[in-house]
Amino acid sequence: MSEWPRRVAPLRGLGARFGLSADQLGLLEAFGAALAWDEAAPTTVREPLRVRDDHLADALVALELPVLKHATLPGGPPLIADLGSGAGVPGIPLAIARPRASVFLIEGNGRKCEFLAGVVAGLPLPNVEVVNARAETWTAGVGACDVVTARALAPLGVVAEYAAPLLKLGGSLVAWRGRRDEEAEAEALRAAAILGLEASEPVRVEPYARAEHRYLHVLTKIAETPSRFPRRDGVARKRPLGRARHSSPPARDPI
Q1: What are the backbone dihedrals phi and psi of residue 227, each rounded to the nearest 5 degrees, phi first?
Q2: In a domain, 218, yes or no
Q3: What is the count of structural domains for the chain?
Q4: 87 confidence band (pLDDT: 50, 70, 90)
Q5: At 18, phi and psi to the nearest 5?
Q6: Does pTM surpass 0.85?
Q7: What is the 3-state secondary structure (H, E, C) of 19-44?
Q8: Domain encompassing residue 212
Q9: Residues 162, 137: Cα–Cα separation, whole Å
Q10: How far apart (Å, rounded) are the C-alpha atoms in residues 107 and 84?
């Protein structure tokens, strides 16, 4: 694995912004190098400066939310599940920044899991576990998670359905989104009402200078999710809970 280029030294800026130690910055550099140069990395973002901004900084900006800022709960360190983890973003940067948290990378694609397992073992990250499963089939996580994260996974209402059964009461879904979409947000609100979730006002964030249309959506579990959830694999996408009649089919919402 090639070394992280010195011209991308502004990783130090992430350390200052998010209170990261030299050791944590070293782990971030190693992870960034894997994303940039490992041919198995499931990402099209390869240029180191973009890796720093679009992957590392974009993940770490969630540390500005109260739910992740300290990552300490009355009952002990939190359990975080990163759904559709893909290349390990935001799960791995958050695990580096919050080493007391237990972070599960939930990914249904076997090859992506192989990449993730190699990264986790090589860094190493003892607080991270890779789980080759879909969110709907990860029964070990039901009712166990303090925080669920999802970035560019599915429409917000669908992500809410994936996350709700996994969350403890009082736990929160944090979803990374791009440009705001009134129809998609209304659909998510309708789904949330069914799932026992309450949405907060989306938080405008600036992970790096000149970043546009970056929002974090936080939905908190305020009531038990009905026992009929999760539905079978793929049903949440095919028949979104909050979709209004005669609306368009759901689409992936890239960052």
Answers
A1: -65, -15
A2: yes
A3: 1
A4: very high
A5: -110, 10
A6: yes
A7: CCCHHHHHHHHHHHHHHHHCCCCCCC
A8: 6-238
A9: 10
A10: 5
Cα gap 48→11, rounded to integer Å: 11
Farthest-apart Cα atoms in the chain, separation? 53
DSSP state, 76? B
Decide: 174 and 101 in contact? Cβ < 8 Å: no
- The verdict on residue 156 lying in a domain is yes
Residue 255 lies in a domain: no
Q: Are 152 and 255 in contact (CB under 8 A)?
A: yes
Residues 212 and 179: their CA atoms lie apart, in Å, by: 8
Q: How much is the average pLDDT of 156-176?
A: 97
Q: How far apart are CA 67 and CA 219, in angstroms?
A: 11
Distance CA 221, CA 232 (A): 21
Q: pLDDT tens-digit profile of 21-60?
A: 999 999 999 999 999 999 999 999 999 999 999 999 999 9
**pLDDT over 90 for what percent of the chain?**
83
Token couple for 61? 């900006």
According to DSSP, the β-strands at 167-177 and 197-199 are unpaired
Nearest of 7, 11, 13 to residue 31 by alpha carbon = 11
Element (H, E) at 150: strand 145-151
Here the CATH number for the domain that contains residue 146 is: 3.40.50.150
pLDDT at 242 exceeding the cut of 90 = no
- Name residue, tokens 């959830």: 229
CA nearest neighbour of 58 among 21, 28, 78: 28
Q: Does 252 fall in a domain?
A: no
- Phi-psi category of residue 246: left, alpha or beta, with phi > 0 → left and psi -120 to 50 → alpha: left
Say how far residue 155 (Cα) sits from the centre of its chain.
14
Range with lowest mean pLDDT among 9-18, 134-143, 169-178: 9-18
